[in-house]
Amino acid sequence: MTVLLTGLPSAGKTSLATAARAALLAAGHRVEVLDGDVVRRELWPELGLSPEDRERNLTRIGSVALLLARNGIITIVAAIAPYAHSRAALRAAHAGVPFAEVHVATPVEVCRRRDVKGLYARQARGEITGLTGVDAVYEEPLTPDLRIDTTLEDVGESAARLVDFILHGPVLSSPHGGRECSGRF
Ligand SMILES: Nc1ncnc2c1ncn2[C@@H]1O[C@H](COP(=O)(O)OS(=O)(=O)O)[C@@H](OP(=O)(O)O)[C@H]1O
Ligand SMILES: Nc1ncnc2c1ncn2[C@@H]1O[C@H](COP(=O)(O)OP(=O)(O)O)[C@@H](O)[C@H]1O
After folding, report:
1. 3-state secondary structure 11-41
2. Count of the separate structural domains present in the chain
3. Which of 43, 89, 133, 145 is close enough to 8 for a disulfide, judged by CB 3.0 to 4.6 Å?
4. What's the pLDDT tens digit per position in 15-38?
């Protein structure tokens, strides 16, 4: 199964992926995390943040995710993935392999307060432009398989909901592997 965690910078994607991985490993599952920030640095440092490169980034992540997922590894992708059409393409590429889109739906004001990497402050000071959710587009998922607003819970609570969804939610529980195989996409 591939699980895409999509959301704004500082929404909580990396924290949730890391905590969910630990819980799933402890329960005996095989798990990998593909974090946008990490694969960009280690696998394709030539990609920037233009719309074309963001699309390429998700396509490449999707290829790796599919290899892992179809070999029985729970693959958690933590990426901003700002474009609805790129996310739909990722889902479509998983034909026959369970796939779920999880919107880490933390509001931009909360993300700005967290500002883990100082990006919101840098954008406000005019040092960078094209920050997703501020002056670059983030197309909110309209029908995600799961939505997690991290505003009112801690990482452990949100991660527990994510793990429960992965192990017991409709995607893996369905005899057809969730809606990916339902013909809607
Ligand atoms: N302008 C701007 N907009 C968005 N993000 C920025 C920007 N500049 C740097 N960064 C950092 O780059 C990380 C990009 O992560 P992704 O690969 O997940 O992005 S994308 O899906 O290709 O849009 C992203 O990682 P996360 O903070 O973990 O989400 C940012 O830390
Ligand atoms: N319920 C929660 N889920 C995830 N992160 C949370 C939550 N509550 C607070 N946070 C904090 O929000 C920040 C999210 O940062 P990070 O995971 O790096 O975000 P992203 O990968 O989306 O850029 C972390 O400092 C984390 O501790």
Report:
1. CCHHHHHHHHHHHHHHCCCCEEEEEHHHHHH
2. 1
3. 133
4. 999 999 999 999 999 999 999 999
Site to probe by mutation for ligand 2, drawn from 116, 131, 146 as the one with most ligand atoms within 8 Å of Cβ, is 116
The whole-model pTM stands at: 0.95
Structure-block tokens of residue 180: 């990916």
- Rounded Cα distance, 82 and 182, in Å: 25
The verdict on the CB of residue 29 being under 6 Å from ligand 2 is no
CA 117 – ligand 1 centroid, Å: 10
What's at 178, amino acid-wise? G
ipTM of the complex: 0.98
Taking the CB of residue 142, how many other CB atoms lie within 10 A of it? Answer: 7
As beta bridge partners, residue 4 has 77, 101
Domain extent for 31: 2-182
**Which residue type is seen at 73?**
I
Would you say the C-alpha torsion 39, 64, 29, 157 has a positive or negative sign?
A: positive
Question: Do residues 140 and 87 make contact, with C-beta atoms less than 8 angstroms apart?
Answer: no
Which residue has the CA at smallest separation from atom 17 of ligand 1?
A: 36
Which of 177, 5, 164 has the alpha carbon at shortest distance from 94?
Answer: 177
Tokens describing residue 30: 């095989």
